[in-house]
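User: Hello, can you help with two protein structures?

Assistant: Certainly.
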Amino acid sequence: MSEITDLLERFRRAAEVVAVATTGASNQELDFTPGPGKWSVRQVACHLADFELACAIRIRQLLTEDNPTLMGYPEDLWAEGLDHKTRKISQAVESFRRVRAENHGLVKDLPESAFSRPGVHTERGPVTLGWLIRHGAEHAENHARQMMNIRQAYKAAKRNSS
């Protein structure tokens, strides 16, 4: 397998990894925050749904525009303004999965040269489509690990309070 093929598989599979990281959690577990200013599993899942929507726009810009400007977004403001604390996690996870599948469908059969298409991210500077796909895969994988860690911290806190 080529590096791009492996990367695309990680990008696609990340939606499943996120779904597994949230499966079977109670509402108390989903809403537990491991410390002040930290996000809960529910908030992380909502963030991933928002991130994937932003990623969808960026992918489309990179595929259709010459060296587009890719906008960052204020994730903390979105988390507060979009009420991530009370959104249904099932909807957030499904939104992430659906949009990730659509994004994967757009890029999975592209020639390897397409992954060099450049753009300029307002927060990260020069990027390519390949960078965006790698970042999307790593971002979801990292947040899935974060969700599992939050769930473990919840279980430990519950044991310690008994």
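That covers the first. Now for the second protein you mentioned:
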Amino acid sequence: MKRCYGYMVFIAVLLLGNIQTAMAQSRNSLRITDNNHLVLQIDIQSSKKTLDSIFNIAGVSANADQIQKANFIALDKDGWTMADHQGSLYHFNRSLEKLNENPQKDPYTISLQIPQIDGKPGYPAEVKYGVNKFANVTVYQLSSGLTRFMLPGYTQAKRVMLSGNFNNWSTLKGAMTKTDGGWIIDVKLPSGICQYKYIIQGRWTTDPNNLQNADDGNGNTNSVYCKYNYTFKLKGYTSAHKVSVAGDFNNWNSDELIMEKHGDTWEKQLYLSDGKHAYRFMVDGEWVTDPANSVKEKDDNGKINCVLVLGEVVHFKLKGYTDAEKVSVAGDFNNWTPNKIFLKKTKDGWTLPLILSPGNYGYKFIVDDRWITDPDNLNYIVEKGVQNSFVAVKPNYTFRLKGFGNAKSVKLTGTFINWDKNGYTMSKKNGDWTISLNLKPGKYVYNFIVDGKSILDPDNKYWEQHNSENANSVLWIE
């Protein structure tokens, strides 16, 4: 994650002036001065990925291709003024008064040890489950749905910030409120695992009350917090001495998730990822299935486990085919295994509500052993040369192309589909072509293909040059 270097260190670096290009992290930074200005330092010889990362943190619309050609028009439009430059090293500044977002007065530096996504420095990888471990519980969920972070002590500090992967390790957001005994802030967090640190008077500090830390993969340590989304419950067994829950999500470790007794019910809160989970309870050394869960199945060893599925409900519907004997659905969500997930027959067709974890899926119906695409879904994806119907579960971004109402075919391609020329087939509604995807945080590059011709997204001002002839649109998902 971003390491906060001291102000004196930063000044010393500026005085040295002649830093080798190999030390790009030191040559690219964002800091706040004591005269209420942001100072952006960039080395135009840095890699495109490095430059794009610092631009994203600084909130500017410039892209690496423009800057590496000493084209600073985008920075100028965003309110940045060039202060000076030495060789490939440039300095720009911008008044904090124009930001209107937690302006800070004391100087500090944001290094270019920019956190990456999906298990890379500063960002946790996807996990199946998680529980918290605190010496004193200072981070917890409120009934409003917000998560409260409390930092006892440090009352002599003038400023304390909360920064983590949930706000892209920002130092302009997360200003905590000072109380009589410490500092407090309420944050809206999604369910899952997050990494965080406090910035106390410009110094990055792990949570002293949190016993759960993680190496961010870049030599730094972050505190780890799990926002819970599920509670296992087992009624009865009031005379039991020890009750736990275990499953495939924690390798059936019956000594880890110890349940607590509340009245006549044993309970255990935790974060559990979307998807299918097998589990059982351990009561005083004996395995017990969940009497409140009727969904059970045998594992490879013949043991009966309870099954829990978390995710979004997707309603698969197929009109007609009332003379068919059986209709099933298969797709990326079950490795395209046929005749496993059957739809139920209705008066005018077939239907099935199915719980799926968030993601992008290709699928087809199987009508009496004949594979067909969904006739009511005009969004398609081509996988291994085969066209399948497409559905996004819990989509977080909609691609939209306006002004091509007469086009016969519009497709979407980009880094999220490995630039497959067939891409995603978009559907037309009210003259606009659209498709929604579930995208993880990070940078994406894409184009539309209109009747076989690749074009930039006309409504996206962010783009980068691919080669002398082609350019691609750029999208950041936070």
